[in-house]
Amino acid sequence: MAVQTMAMGDESTGMASRGWLASAASKDDVPPAPSGPHGDFDGSLKVSQKLPTAADLSKVAALPLLTVHNESVPFESLYAGERGGRRVMVIFMRHFFCGNCQEYLRTLCASITPESLLALPTPTEIMVIGCGQPELIPFYAETTACRFPIYADPTRKLYDELGMTHAMGMGQKPPAYVQKSLFSVIVQSFYQAISSGRRALSGGHFWQIGGEFLFENGDVTWCHRMQHTRDHAEVPEIRKQLRLDDDEQQPSRRKRWSSGLAPAGLARKLSLSRSRERSGSRKRNSLALSAREGSSKEGSVMEKVKEEPVTEAEVARR
């Protein structure tokens, strides 16, 4: 297996070389080099944003993904049936050492939490897929503070079948989700790979770019494919697609569960009925207590009469 090693060769962070600590089985595995007047740093590619069809999804449904435990699961298990709920945003990342993608996921996870998705009226989840080996998933989750499920597709077949491509360009300007300077991202990415030791070769193909796909009831209703290495859909766009900022789509969790348990209006009637029952119970308890107290006083008087017998003289006076 040929190994390309060029110091600081991660194009996603602006490194000038073509490859770094990346492996390729053969020359056929390496995509053609980007062309243009600026070489590696040429602008965006023209990538189709056409939605995958039912036929497209049938081709990828059974393709395997690897879990953090190195277990194989079919891709459709993420978005079909009870496991994925009715609405799932699947986010395809680049290699696990890509500093820009780490920035993206860190920013997204700070804005969208599992709890905020639970509050939506429609069951909604976010799934993350990287093109590296599953042994790096714990590192990736910790580095990005990601609480969503993360999977690995080291074969990158899903990427290819869903129309995601390869690129080296960085685009014209940094996206809003990148909070660090370019230099900081370069140093961070390089340091992570070097310090990972033997796992430096497990991050994934460094030319692969990803995208975002929204599944609803098993179909893709929205998608965005990256055109360069810093072209993930911005976090506000993800929030918009998930309807997180739509007040009408965010009833309180208490109201949502009440509406799920009883027809409209019945929950309020049941609540009022229970309130009246509690009030009546308190009144009955109070009357019973008063009756017991009165009975106790009457018994005390009778006991006193029994203890003090009346003489014939007192009867005559009365």
Keywords, separated by commas or semicolons:
13% strand, 318 residues, disordered N terminus, 5-stranded mixed beta sheet, 11 helices, alpha/beta
Kindly summarize this structure in a few lines.
This protein is an alpha/beta fold. The chain is built from 11 helices and 9 strands.
- Count of separate DSSP helical elements: 11
Q: What is the C-alpha radius of gyration, as a whole number of Å?
A: 34 Å
**What's the total count of β strands?**
9
- Provide the succession of SSEs: EEHEEHEHHEHEHHEEHHHH
Q: Percent range for helical residues?
A: 25-40%
Biggest sheet strand line-up = 7-6-5-8-9
| Major sheet characteristics | 5 strands, mixed
Helix and strand composition category: alpha/beta
Strand content: 5-15%
Describe the structure.
With 318 residues, this protein is of the alpha/beta class. The protein has eleven helices and nine strands. The protein has a five-stranded mixed β-sheet with strand order 7-6-5-8-9. Strand 3 and strand 4 form a beta hairpin.
Topology:
Elements: E1 2-4, E2 22-24, H1 54-60, E3 64-66, E4 72-74, H2 81-84, E5 87-92, H3 99-111, H4 114-118, E6 124-130, H5 137-144, E7 150-152, H6 157-161, H7 182-195, E8 211-216, E9 219-225, H8 235-241, H9 253-261, H10 266-307, H11 312-317
Parallel strand pairs: 5-6, 6-7
Antiparallel strand pairs: 1-2, 3-4, 5-8, 8-9
